[in-house]
Amino acid sequence: MGITQEEWDDVDEVIISRAGKSYVFKKPAVTAVKMQGQNTFQIIGDYNIVEGKVQALAPQQPKGIVIPDEDVELVASQANVSPEEARKALEECNGEPAEAIIKLMSR
Predict the structure, then answer these.
(1) Domain boundaries, the chain
(2) Of 60, 8, 2, nearest in space to 36 by CA
(3) Residue 85 burial by CB count (10 A; 0-12/13-18/19+): exposed, middle or buried?
(4) CA gyration radius, the chain
(5) CATH, domain range 3-51
(6) Pairing with 44, which of 15, 22, 58, 77 sits 20 to 30 Å away (CA)?
(7) Angle of CA points 87, 91, 96, to nearest 5°
(8) What spatial distance separates the first Cα and last Cα of the chain, rounded to whole Å?
(9) pTM to 2 decimal places
(10) What is the pLDDT of residues 12-66, one digit of tens each?
């Protein structure tokens, strides 16, 4: 029949906005069901009713780019540069090793 069901245990918040009100569920149990191409969700948990529209929580972004030492070593060896130059190129290339290697080799 083509039915799949999945428990989502990592949901932080669900917001349902209606005319003039929002229902905010914190840490709910969510089950996603796909049947005949349609998605449905079951939300279980306590909620608060808030007047007006509520903005969803923005995901927390890490401060700056985290560049693994292995990437620095790879770029330095492939581009034949110092680790300091490799790290700087990786930072300029948003942590993408291939892009950093090309950048260093094309100068």
Answers:
(1) 3-51, 69-105
(2) 2
(3) middle
(4) 23
(5) 2.20.70
(6) 58
(7) 95
(8) 59
(9) 0.48
(10) 999 998 888 999 999 999 999 999 889 999 999 999 998 887 776 655 555 667 8
